[in-house]
Amino acid sequence: MRTGNTEYSFTRLSKWESRTQSSEAFRAILRKHAAQKGEVVVVKILKGATVSNGDNDSDPTVGDRWLQEFRLLSKLKHPHIAGLVAFDARIWSLYIEHKDGQDLASPKWCFSGGEKAHFFKGSAIDACHILADIASALAYMGRLGRIGGFLHGNIKPGNILYRRNNAKVTRLSQYGAILIDFSDATEGRTFLRKEGTPWYLAPETFKHRHGRERDMYALGVVMLYLLGNIGLPERTEPPLVWDATSLGLIAREQIREWHARVEEWRKSLQPRKGCTGVEAELVAIVRTMLLQENRLTAEELEEATRKWALY
After folding, report:
1. Distance, CA of 83 to CA of 75 (rounded, Å)
2. Which residues, in sequence order, are CB contacts of 65 under 8 Å at separation 6+?
3. What is the Cα–Cα distance from 277 to 67, expressed in whole angstroms?
4. 3-class SS at 256?
5. What is the CATH number that goes with domain 9-97?
6. Tens digit of pLDDT for each residue in 103-120?
7. In the CATH scheme, what is the homologous superfamily, with its name and number, of domain 102-308?
8. What is the DSSP string of 78-145?
9. pLDDT digits over 152-162, tens only?
10. 165-187 confidence digits (pLDDT tens)
């Protein structure tokens, strides 16, 4: 970018990009001054209305959304969270740490065809490492802030990067699982917002105020996928059509049916015959993550899975 003098520049890399209605993201080399070699980052540029919609003042502007995400990312410093490197409010951009892992919904970790299409490729040990790393990140988020910590709000396989531990790689780059995309994150003790991905939203999300335990339920559904009990629901299940601000009768019935199925999977979740003690313990933990009441908290999950962390 140029404003007379070069303040900073980035060179777009062509290997990957992601576009949604509200943002676009791509990899780039960021140089904070001309002589710098630069570092690879993920550039996220938010899109949307720059002024409030007179018909619906509750719709946040792109500036509101950018400021909320910037404020949160600027506070997050954790080895299993992709942190903020730089920002530019003039173009609603955030420059986020680049990690070499691939998300759990990508072809690296998800079968794309055959009998196992849309199921997880990894092992129970991978699932243990992922759970421990994300539990650590969520517990850390719960300890931040003055009013009860932060809710991520959109835990799903596509928002978790993972690279399997490799003894041949230097320790600094062995990072396991990384939590990304804080577009729906909110600070507080209780929440009313219903944004997120429908299949991963906890039952209480649609009834009343809810707490950070909503993230635990979402992570529990992710674990059903990692344990091989279900395929990616966004690819294997009928679409859940709903409006986050006004759920219609059809959408409510669809949501109830989905939660009933998750409860059936939870009740039937059992260790495989001849499995290791680690896998049996993992299954027991996941069952408590999907409870509709008295669900495991992030802090309890962090403590229970600490022994499975890569480092």
Report:
1. 9
2. 22, 46, 48, 183
3. 46
4. helix
5. 3.30.200.20
6. 999 999 999 989 999 999
7. Transferase(Phosphotransferase) domain 1 (1.10.510.10)
8. -TTB--EEEEEGGGTEEEEE--S-EETTSTTTB--SSTTTTSB-S-HHHHHHHHHHHHHHHHHHHHST
9. 989 999 999 99
10. 765 654 445 569 999 999 888 88
